[in-house]
Amino acid sequence: MAERIGFIGLGLMGKPMARNLLAAGYPLTVHSRSAPPVDELVAEGAARASTPAEVAAASDVTITMLPDTPDVESVLFGDDGVSEGAAAGSLVVDMSTIDPIATRAFADRLGSGRVGMLDAPVSGGEVGAVAGTLSIMVGGLDDAFERARPLLEAMGSTIVHVGASGAGQVTKTCNQLVVGSAVEAVAEALVLAAQAGVDPARVREALLGGFAGSKVLELHGQRMLDGAFEPGFRASLMAKDGRIVVAAAERLGAPIPAFRAVAERLEAMLPAGRGDLDYAALVTLLEDEAGRTLRAEP
Q1: Residue 28 in contact with residue 18, Cβ under 8 Å?
Q2: Which residue from 62, 215, 23 is spatially nearest to 124, judged by alpha carbons?
Q3: Of 89, 168, 175, 280, which residue is least crowded by CB atoms under 10 Å?
Q4: d(Cα 52, Cα 71) in Å, to the nearest integer?
Q5: What is the rounded CA–CA span in Å between residue 152 and residue 120?
Q6: What is the fold of 170-290?
């Protein structure tokens, strides 16, 4: 029999991820802060729960996909939290992007009640969540990973068990360092081209054929050229991830001089009122400073 799955957090990423589990045939119970995505999935066959504890009580495996570390802590251990409803032998899979050190502490707290935990953050954005092609980086015990593998395969195409508890979040921290730095670099390159009077679209086309070619240049570079900043991943969330990178590096004594500058740029998106745009809109800060836009004037 298929394990009963609970899913908490039906935002931009969580809703399509939960929908893919439902499509794969898993009995699904859902909960989220806002009602509309819950209503959508209930109409498609999911069961509704009014609290995280109720989700956990109805589930063998409870998945969380939440914005930040305090959100995960509250959902797991707050009033009517997952820990109140989870039975011994059940499993929690946190797919949020949160602090690695806190993740290890959460796993220990759940383990004291004989509830297992995996940290399984994802990369691939809304497009990957919808298509079920996310990259999923997993930390936790081997047997918990094998138990969760079929669920993860319903949501992602690249699934790597990196190591012990917290290793998934460490990997996601590294991912955000690389991706955030690449988005800033692409933005700077395209604005530099425009300032030199060279067509940035042609520059992007040329760069895609060499060592500078990347998914960031391909996808986000085109977003920048088109001014298409509907959020696949909000700048406010990327700024939050930047804080996680910086905090982890400071605790570990890891030098990250280039990314510190990127983190400051991400933070600057928030007072500029651009936190709800896709993080590719980092280019707009450079456009403001340069006094020009990459997009051709009508």
Answers
A1: yes
A2: 215
A3: 89
A4: 12
A5: 9
A6: N-(1-d-carboxylethyl)-l-norvaline Dehydrogenase; domain 2 (1.10.1040)
Tokens representing residue 51 in the block: 């609290």
CATH architecture type of domain 5-163:
3-Layer(aba) Sandwich (3.40)
Q: Quote the tokens at residue 181.
A: 């730095």
Tokens of 292: 């020009």
Burial of 276: CB neighbours in 10 Å, binned 0-12, 13-18, 19+: middle
Question: Using one digit for the tens of pLDDT, what is the confidence trace for 7-38?
Answer: 999 999 999 999 999 999 999 999 999 999 99
Fold match, 5-163 / 170-290: no
**Is the distance from CB of 250 to CB of 219 less than 8 angstroms?**
no
Would you list the domain boundaries of the chain? 5-163, 170-290
Question: Sign of dihedral through CA atoms 160, 164, 170, 174?
Answer: negative
In this structure, are strands 134-139 and 61-64 parallel, antiparallel, or unpaired?
A: unpaired
CA dist., res. 46 & res. 206, Å (int) = 47
- The span from the CA of 20 to the CA of 5, in Å, is 12
Q: Which helix (DSSP H) or strand (DSSP E) does residue 105 occupy? A: helix 100-111
192-250 pLDDT tens trace: 999 999 999 999 999 999 999 999 999 999 999 999 999 988 999 999 999 999 999 99
Cβ contact 96:65 at 8 Å: yes
Strand (E) or helix (H) holding 28: strand 28-31
Hey, which residues are catalytic here? 172
Report how far residue 280's alpha carbon sits from residue 271's, in angstroms, rounded to the nearest whole number: 16
Q: Which residue has the tokens 């804080």?
A: 243
CB environment 167-184: b (16+ within 10 A), e (fewer): bbbbbbbebbbebbbbbb
* 3-state percent helix, strand, coil for the chain, nearest multiple of 5: 55, 15, 30
pTM to 2 decimal places? 0.91
